[in-house]
Write a structure and sequence with these properties.
By secondary structure, the protein is of the alpha+beta class. The chain is built from five helices and six strands. A hairpin with a 2-residue loop joins strand 5 and strand 6 (126-136). The longest helix has 21 residues, at 143-163.
């Protein structure tokens, strides 16, 4: 084999060996996204989402398309601190094509334990959050109390939704 070809192959393998895996890139992206909210870095936060990104909040009415979510969030970022979520557990899955991924994470938040999950797309070689779902983690032993607590509001919302 040609020595230049061997040298080229060795260099390429070194480059790939030192490159980050998609899972590592996604893990860092999600940590940076959460940190941007905690530091009230509005542009840093939204730059990590796709232009058509969606954020589903803990309230049943919170289905935020990107521009709506930006408008809703702006006052929180303007006051100097939006929200603080720290992942304590995270699972990341990447498609065989390497063009989309999905994840779930358990979060330490001001609402205590929450669950985040979502979908990411690779755009121009960069991972972006396309869809995020935040939910409050409720212990099974407390579900009955929670149902009782939210029963009235849920019933009213269901009536409104059924009229649509």
């Amino acid at each position: 084999m040609n020595s230049k070809l061997i040298l080229g192959l060795v260099l390429l393998s070194c480059i790939f060996a030192h490159g980050q895996s998609d899972k590592e890139q996604i893990d860092q992206l999600l940590d940076a996204w959460h940190l941007a909210a905690a530091k009230a870095d509005y542009e840093g936060y939204f730059s990590k989402m796709t232009a058509d990104g969606v954020f589903l909040g803990t309230d049943a009415t919170e289905n935020w398309q990107n521009q709506e979510f930006r408008a809703f969030s702006k006052p929180y970022f303007d006051r100097g601190r939006a929200w603080s979520f720290t992942a304590v557990e995270r699972n990341i899955y990447v498609s065989e094509t390497g063009t989309f991924a999905w994840f779930d994470e358990l979060l330490d938040t001001q609402m205590k334990l929450c669950r985040g999950s979502g979908v990411l797309k690779k755009e121009n070689g960069q991972w972006k959050i396309a869809h995020y779902v935040l939910s409050i983690a409720v212990p099974n032993d407390n579900v009955g109390e929670l149902i009782e607590l939210k029963k009235e509001k849920d019933s009213l919302l269901l009536l409104q939704l059924q009229k649509k």
